[in-house]
Amino acid sequence: MGSERHLTLIGAGLAGALLAILLAKQGWRVQVFERRGDPRIDGYAGGRSINLALTERGLDALRRAGTAEQVLSQAVMMRGRMVHPLGEPAHLQRYGRDDSEVIWSISRGDLNLTLINAAEAAGVDILFDHSLESVDFDAGIAVFKTPENPQRRHAFNTLIGCDGAGSTLRAEMEKVAPLGSRTEWLGHGYKELEIPPGFDGDFQIEPNALHIWPRGRYMCIALPNDERTFTVTLFLPNEGEAPSFATVKNGADARALFEREFPDALPLIPRLEADFEHNPVGILGTLYLQRWHLHGRAVLLGDAAHAMVPFHGQGMNCAFEDCVALAAHLPVDVKDFASAFAAFEAERAPNALAIQQMALENYLEMRDHVDDADYQLQRALELELARRYPGQFIPRYSMVSFTRLPYALAQSRGRVQRELLVEATQHIDTLDAVDWDWLDAQIHTRLPPLETR
């Protein structure tokens, strides 16, 4: 493609389609190669979790792409976590102060279709059924396999890898120079189930919440869909003593588990046995790279550069933030891709690492701590401090979900704030017993004011 103002993207999933829109709006000529067929013709075949949590970082990117309003029309608001302790009534733990601080449950398929349509409307050329086979980086030639041609050659200026955790482009880059890739598997997997609408066609349980059944080493969650269903995800260890996927092997085992551990959820999932036996066990891991780009010839972003576990609901939001950052480093007159990619990596890599670590921590919180009395007291104090010190004490979850403060800053301040909460609630069981004078002094000493954005 002779034009210097031409960019080649690999992958038309969420990040690839969004980045294509942003770059086209800047004046780039963009081609996107996608190994799957056109989902508008073939149906959506993502092979991944069908629900995603959309937060401010992702919404900001969608606003820039001009698609936020359409996406939100298909989303369901979630005010907080509806916690279902075993043998006790469910209770809501709000994410933020009020309905101005919420997150949104969105269908991956619906979102991908919206972005693909918007990309094509922006002038992007999307080529489906094009599977990347090999890359000659020196010659600037990528070879794709299509139904008609097993060796379709494509000349490129540079390649941008938006092709997910199993990135073919990343594998091709590593043949040329090591990227220092390392995957840490969580040792836990997941199965997806479904709560259908009730007889009246409406939601069977509270729709405006993310439901959690925390059980220590494992848990169940449910996210609402705009078709009045819930996607239920059961997380279990892969191996070991019951319950794990090594011991819960079939539908009958799953029913016995739910009867014992999730009795209030069981009547809501009529196809439990069939879904459990039909749906595969998903794997969970964290991908770390020491390097995201190959000089000016190729760069990775999103899951291709930093796949993470889903327990902070930030994988997509982080990838969308990557797209905004890369577009900012690629004005249409850029000539030096190597410098642009290096600056992009320098900006995003520390933040990706921070949210990867926070996502792992959030798994422990969700499955083990949300129904713990100490946690609940600390959470109550956290909300009170956020009310008293709005420019200084912002809960870590709020910094991650409701602002665009860098993830690394949210992580470092969150660590200080967690220390303060633990220290302030030691040996007490109500907020009335908090030493407010001591805590006020500590906050002014240890938490300088923030400028949110």
Provide structural commentary.
- It is globular and about 70 Å long.
- The longest helix is centred in the last third of the chain and has 33 residues.
- The strands form four sheets. A seven-stranded mixed sheet has the order 6-5-14-15-16-13-17, sandwiched between helices. It has a six-stranded mixed sheet with strand order 8-2-1-12-19-18, sandwiched between helices. A three-stranded antiparallel sheet has the order 3-7-4.
- It contains 15 helices and 19 strands.
- With 453 residues, it is α/β, with parallel strands linked by helices.
- The mean pLDDT is 94.
- Helix 3 packs across helix 10, helix 7 crosses helix 8 and helix 11 runs parallel beside helix 14.
- Strand 15 and strand 16 form a beta hairpin.
- 41% of the residues are buried.
- Helices cover 39% and strands 21% of the residues.
What is the number of E strands? 19
Q: Estimate the helix proportion, in percent.
A: 25-40%
Based on CA atoms alone, the radius of gyration comes out at 23 Å
Q: Calculate the mean pLDDT score and round it.
A: 94
General form: globular
Question: Short summary of the structure?
Answer:
With 453 residues, the chain is an alpha/beta fold. The chain is built from 15 helices and 19 strands.
List the helices and strands and how they pair.
Elements: E1 6-10, H1 14-25, E2 29-33, H2 39-42, E3 51-54, H3 56-65, H4 68-72, E4 76-78, E5 80-83, E6 91-94, E7 103-107, H5 108-121, E8 125-127, E9 131-136, E10 141-145, E11 152-155, E12 159-161, H6 168-176, E13 182-195, E14 210-214, E15 219-224, E16 230-237, H7 251-261, H8 272-278, E17 282-288, E18 293-294, E19 298-300, H9 303-306, H10 315-329, H11 337-369, H12 373-388, H13 396-402, H14 407-425, H15 436-446
Parallel strand pairs: 1-2, 1-12, 2-8, 5-14, 12-19
Antiparallel strand pairs: 3-7, 4-7, 5-6, 9-10, 10-11, 13-16, 13-17, 14-15, 15-16, 18-19
